[in-house]
Structures are given as structure tokens and as C-alpha cells.
Amino acid sequence: MASSLPPLPAVEGTEPSRSVLDSFRIAIAKRISEALPLSIEQVYPGVDYGKKGEDFTVALPRFRLPGKVDDLAKQVIEKFQPDEWVQSITHDKAFLHFKVNTNNMMREVLNQVHSLTHDTPSVPEYGTNASGKGKKVIIEYSSPNIAKSFHVGHLRSTIIGAFLSNLYKACGWEVVSFNYLGDWGTQFGMIATGYEKYGSQEELEKDAIHHLFDVYVKVNKDAEADPNVKLEAAKWFKRMEDGDEEALKNWRVWREMSVRKYEEEYERLNVKFDVYTGESQVGKKWMDKALERLDEMGLISDSEGAKLVDLEKWKLGKAVVRKKDGTSIYLTRDIGGAIERAEKYKFDKMIYVVSSQQDLHLAQFFKVLELMEFPWAKDLVHINYGLVQGMSTRKGTVVFLDQIIKEAASVMHDQMKTNEDKYNAIEDPVTTSREIGITGVKIQDMAAKRINNYTFNWSRMLSFEGDTGPYLQYAHVRLASIGRKNPELIPLPPPSQIDTSTLAEYAQAREIAFLLGTYPDVVKTALKTHEPSGVVTFSFRLAHAISSAWDAVIVKGEPDIEKARAKMFLYECARDVLAASMRLLSIRPLERM
Ligand code: ARG
Asked: Residues 36, 153: one domain?
């Protein structure tokens, strides 16, 4: 049943070998170009997905042709003959709606999903594209501050950043992921001062992140009562900046141990970094160079010993780049750091995933780099996101990442226990509840546009009802179980021996197949918008379509083996794509629950 459809012209920017719906779109564009004075290339971008019940829709006015829309439509319709690609056309006001050939669409889509997913199983390729081939992007995300709390802002950066890393990889880019730790600054002088009084090697080894935070809180209390503490701390930090080994010794250990602990927690979240860097790692020489260049260009002014760049012209205030005592600051480190990365990595793009609370900061340092006339300054992108309210656990406010993970796992675990039969059937309830809990947190975070604020709600995000993470995992598990429940059908014969035309009688099957066909476009759109929400929406649409199919497209007990196989094939392909979309969102799809 190999593809033997009539050939189509190639259209720039399409890739039928990765996205077979492109072919159907080309076929539609061809029809229109034959009836109206337009080229296929002109029509193609106007072939949009249709509303429910229609596959594709073309809005005629967009072509700005002379004559009445009705007449134009008539010309297309008069010439129309159904063929192997396009089945029917209807006309409604300014729109032409098209339905593609059901059998061919289903066969082509399912075969493509299957072969691109399983031909090289180590790198499932369905949904990917090569638009970023040969290009390199640095994506900086998460970036918590050592010895301070890991707040929801960092969690959002982690979740969105992990998604973007996967997304750019799926689009063929070489991705280098950076975690830019807040591991420098006067607070380390504070901790060093406090550590002499409150530090404990044992506590540090047990849990560096918690212990350093404790020390920091305590020494801050001391500082409130005694102004000398701050002076002491500033002196200490100055020694660190001057490279005094004695002052740096402890700090090095703290950093190292915190990173190790974070790595474990990121692994739980299915998040990985290529480079752990941080504010401390920005070479002094890059910052000095930057300041020199700014000076030469006459961009720096002096204000009571401090140096600043005046950005009022762009409504970005005055940006201080060096403090009176000569120590560096957050902004200078970002400026120097970007120059260093540009030199070392020669990136084509660099993305910073940072909360919208830092919009001004990012705009300032992007502007400074632009004023310095670095050609790559235009390749810097700030991906921002809104605030989250109300994240606390049953024990109180959340300060650390491991508390968030633990709470998600334990709320989920409690919930699962309420159904005893089901609970007892789960092999490893601890890991399973943690994975589902994390999925719930991630889905809630990525369900709406990034810039929206939202309120953290454990019970809503961890419910099995509604568009939640647990619901998505459940949909995947159900698909994964279909093979186990119908062992006599496994393994399926190769797609060329499966007759998918037996599925044509089920509207649900058609809907699923078409949706699967749209996935490569979902990925492309996400790359344009940098929004995970489109992928989340797609996953739920697919999960809903599958759930409506269960009662109609039944595998178990289907007496006709040809039909049974085709149905099973449909569900296996649905599972492949659902899993792909979940993995893109950094979620690990579960096999059982
Ligand atoms: N560590 C910073 C914070 O917690 C976030 C770092 C953002 N990245 C950057 N290049 N400034 O606020």
C-alpha cells in the first residue's frame, strides 16, 4: 500500500518528507493557482487549517485580486474535480473550505508518524524539522541564587527553558544550555561572615542548599542589630573580587556542593544543563574591556565615583555599571558575560529566560551592548514570563526546589491512595506519584501564555479531571496499555501490510489522524512564538480526540484481524505523537500508573 499519489510540484519552505500535510496543502494551492491568476507559491501561505469539520480553509480576499469574491470562488469550484489529494470543496462567503481525501490522508499520516518515530528509535523524528540546521543557540535558564531561596520565578524559568531547549533541538539547532547561577555578590561576604559563627561542615554535607540559606538568614538578622556585620561582609567580598585565595576557599566548596545538589533535583525534573556557569565565572577581563570600550565611545558618565550609562533617551533610566568601591555588579557581569559568550561560542542567537520582573534589567544590558555596536547584540532575546501567586506547601511557604518536588509528589500520592484498588495495582507508587505530580506542576505552568500571571493550586493541577498533567499521563498510559491488553496483535506487521482504509468509517479515527498530521506545524509555530501553551493545547486536543475514540474504535474483540490491526496501528501512532509532545514539554510519559 505504498504511496502512489499523483506527483506535486515542490514549494519552497515546505517539507513533505517530514510533514505530509504539506503535500495536501500544495495540492490545494495548485487547484487555486490553476483557476485564478496566482502562482502556487502565492497561494500556499494562504492555505490555513480549517475550523472543525473542514480540513483547510482559504480566505480569498487575502490575494487582493480584482473582481467579486463570489466570482473568484465560482471559478475555483467550476474547475474542481475530486482527486487522490483533495476530496471536496465548499464555498462560504469569502472562504473556500477543502476536505482532503480521507483514505490517503490517513495512510500517509500514519505511515509517516510510524516511520519517523521508529526508523531510528533512539532519536524519534516525527515533528522535527531542519530549519535551524548549522545554527547555534545558547539558552540560559533556571539560574537560581546560591544561598537564597529557589522561588517560583526560578521554577518557571526552569520549566520554560527546558521546553525551549527541546524545541530548538527539535528544529535542528545546536543548543547549549546554560545555568547562570547567582553565585557572586555581597551576599557571599555576608555568608562568609556568618559561616564563622553558624556554619557546620556536617550540615553542609547533608544539604548544602538548606544550610547556606540558614546561615544567610541568621547573619542577616545579626546585621539588623549590628551595622558592622555589613561592613565586614563588604570587605570580605572585596577580597573575593580581588582573588584572595583564602577568602575564596570556602565559597568554592559551597558552590560546588550546591551545584551537585541542584543537579539531582534537575534530574528529577528531567532537566539538564550543558554548562553550569554563574556570575562568579564572568572573567574580569571581559568586564574591564567592556568598560574601556564604553569609555572610549563616550558612553560613560561619572556620578559621585560610580560609573553609569545614560539610557534615558530610550526610557531605560541610568544604568550603573561600576560601584564606587570598584566592585562589579549584576548588570556589568551580564554585559561582560555576553561578550565572553559571543567570543567563545559564536552563537547565532542567545536566549535569556528570565521573569518579567527583570524586563528593565534585560532591556538595559541589551541596549548597552547595542550601543557598543556589537553586531550580535540583535541576536539576544529575552523570554519573559509572569508571576505566580500562592505557592506554599501544607507545612508553610516554599523556599527550595526540593520542597516543591516533594509536595507535588506527596499531594499526588495521597490522592492516588484514595482509590485503593488502583493504588494497589501500581508497581512503584512513589516514583509514579512523583512523576505525575511533576507533570501536574509543569502543565499548569505552561498551559497559558507565558506572560500571564497565575495562582498556584495544588488540587486543581493534580486532579485527574480537566486539562491537567495527570489527565495527560493517564491518556498516555491508556494508549501504552493497549498492546499489553491485546498481545495476540503484537507485533504489528509493517505499515505497508496494514490496511488503514478500514478506518475510514470512523469519524474519530479521521480526526485523530488529521491531528497527528498537524503536529509538525505545532512545533514550527511554537518556535515562532516561544510559547509552550500551543503544544499543551495540542496535547489536550489529541488526548480528547483519543478519549472520544475509545467507545467507537474498539480493538478488543474486533473479529476482523485486518480491522483490528488498523485500529491498533492508529492508537500506536497516537501514542507516539502524544509521547513526542509530552517529551517536548520535558515530561516523561509513563507506561503504567
Ligand atoms: N539569578 C538571577 C535571579 O535570581 C537570575 C539570572 C537571570 N539571568 C541573567 N543573565 N541575568 O534573579
From this structure: no
